[in-house]
Amino acid sequence: MTADLAEAKDLSCIEAQLTEREDIDVLINNAGSGALGPISKGTADGLENLIEINILALTRLTHAALPGFRSSAIN
């Protein structure tokens, strides 16, 4: 699955796909971003984007995959 996890519609699409499946036993989230330099040189919007990708998307996708994790653990 490929998506821009900073975009709400893309994140929702991936969440829905993960929630619908019960055969997921591993989630590899290869999304992530960083910033070089002092925080004072960045913008508030840039920081928000980092948080959306590195924290919010990771947390939401992990939560969406939980039913599959639980199903795999039982079997």
Question: How would you describe this structure to a colleague?
Answer:
The chain has 75 residues and is mainly alpha-helical. It has one domain. It is 59% helix and 0% strand.
Primary descriptors:
about 80 residues; elongated; mainly alpha; single chain; about 0% strand
Element layout with pairings:
Elements: H1 8-20, H2 44-74
Helix pairs in contact: 1-2
Pfam family, one: adh_short
Protein name: SDR family NAD(P)-dependent oxidoreductase
Summarize this entry quickly.
This protein has two helices and no strands.
Q: Helices and strands, in N-to-C order?
A: HH
Helix vs. strand class: mainly alpha
Largest sheet composition = none
Q: Percent helix among the residues?
A: 55-70%
Mind telling me the C-alpha Rg? 15 Å
State the end-to-end CA separation: 25 Å
What is the approximate shape? elongated
What's the rounded overall pLDDT mean? 88
Query: Into which percentage range does the β-strand content fall?
Result: under 5%
Q: Total number of β-strand segments?
A: 0
Number of structural units classed as domains: 1
DSSP helix count?
Answer: 2
Protein name: SDR family NAD(P)-dependent oxidoreductase
InterPro entries: NAD(P)-bd_dom_sf (IPR036291), SDR_fam (IPR002347)
Pfam families: adh_short
